[in-house]
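Hey, resending since the last one bounced:
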Amino acid sequence: MKKIGILGGTFDPPHFGHLIMANEVASGLNLDAVWFLPNQIPPHKVKTSSTTTEERLQMLEIATESHPLFRIETIEFRRNGPSYTIETMEILSKQYPNHEFYFIIGADMIEYLPKWYKIDELVQLVRFVGVKRPGYTTESKFPIIHVEAPLIDISSKMIRNRIANKETIRYLLPESVRIYIKENHLYGSK
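The structure tokens again:
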């Protein structure tokens, strides 16, 4: 049975917080791979970005290409409507019956788990892996495997805001992603 980590998100843009979390969980749980699962329409967020699905995918490919265990799963890009994790994991579980899935979430999402769509069914399909994040608790009534990782307080929203305010984003995300953002004038960059 292969052990596969799943890291979902908008990745708008992907940053070192995402990459460190995936790497630490892969190492800590001895996973065979980590699949990055970009959302088409996250049910818990209002779309505030001007980037396209293709631009987000390109940035994620650039960010993950050098890691041998990282891969991108675009199943949610091929579906219409909100990206509910339960529906995605039902499909992946059927497609990959010999895989055990570890769904990686930051502490902000651990607090939000009771609000997830069909959470009681989802915990039967995946094992949740929680990673600490500054300012959040990791306590939950749901079973969570906790993995320690360096605490880096970076968010995609913070990066977008810094770009909009003409502030530096250097060292917050891979240099190749920063260059892609600049060359493609994303998030109001010039």
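Helices lie at 16-28, 53-64, 85-95, 107-112, 119-125, 156-164, 175-183.

Sorry for the duplicate.
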